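Please fill in the sequence for the structure shown.

STRUCTURE ENCODING:
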């Protein structure tokens, strides 16, 4: 893990990003010796995994089904 100060990070941002992209190494940016930010490689989320809350929602009807005459008010807004 590489530790740099804010001035060095600002001056060498492109080089730091290239290093992260190539090696996957994380960079900690410090101000006055205290960590303020982490730079790390971006990790894509798996979009095929169901959301923990949204995956529990169940729809008990067909949302593409047309309405019957009784259900359709015929009014327009």
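FILLED IN BY: designer on duty
SEQUENCE:
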């Amino acid at each position: 893990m590489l530790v740099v100060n804010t001035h060095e990070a600002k001056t060498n941002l492109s080089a730091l990003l290239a290093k992260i992209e190539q090696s996957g190494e994380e960079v900690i940016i410090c101000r006055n010796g205290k960590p303020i930010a982490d730079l790390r490689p971006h990790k894509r989320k798996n979009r095929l995994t169901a959301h923990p809350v949204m995956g529990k929602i169940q729809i008990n009807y067909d949302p593409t089904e047309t309405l019957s005459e009784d259900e359709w008010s015929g009014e327009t807004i």
